[in-house]
Amino acid sequence: MSYLLFRWIINALALLLVANVVPGFGVDTFYSALIASLVLGLVNALIRPLFFILTLPITILTLGLFTFVVNAFMIWLVSTIVKGFVVEGFTPALLAALLLWIISLTTNWIIKQAKES
Q: DSSP class of residue 22?
């Protein structure tokens, strides 16, 4: 349970970091970031698998790069649901998806290293 809370807070902080780096991508408060990361997690768990299966042929043709487009769409979808979380177009959503992937990859590596030692 504490691991889930830790990941939730890390994802909220990642959203705040990305909001400071990517123009057109904004999060008003830490509370908005917490809600947005929770909703993004739910959307990724419930809607993304279906959307991924529907777009599997184009994902295979692009050697997996279309996955970033799917992630950008999920981020945009969450921005339409959560107040205080704004994405002003496809390009900010795509840049945010790329940065969130890099942050997630890095934090997963750090957590793995911490568990091993």
A: S
pTM of the entire structure?
0.91
User: Which residues neighbour 3 within 8 Å (Cβ) at sequence distance 6 or greater?
Assistant: none
d(CA 26, CA 87): 6
Question: What does the radius of gyration of the chain's CA atoms come to, in whole angstroms?
Answer: 14
Using CA atoms, how far apart are residues 6 and 113, in angstroms rounded to an integer?
Answer: 16
Q: Which residues contact 10 (CB under 8 A, 6 or more apart)?
A: 107
Query: CB of 107 within 8 A of CB of 10?
Result: yes
- Asked if residues 78 and 36 have their Cβ atoms less than 8 Å apart, the reply is yes
> Hey, what are 98's tokens?
């790329």
Side chain identity at 53, as an amino acid letter?
A: I
Strands (E), the chain: 25-27, 85-87
Rounded CA-CA distance 84/90 in Å is 18
Mean pLDDT score of the chain: 95
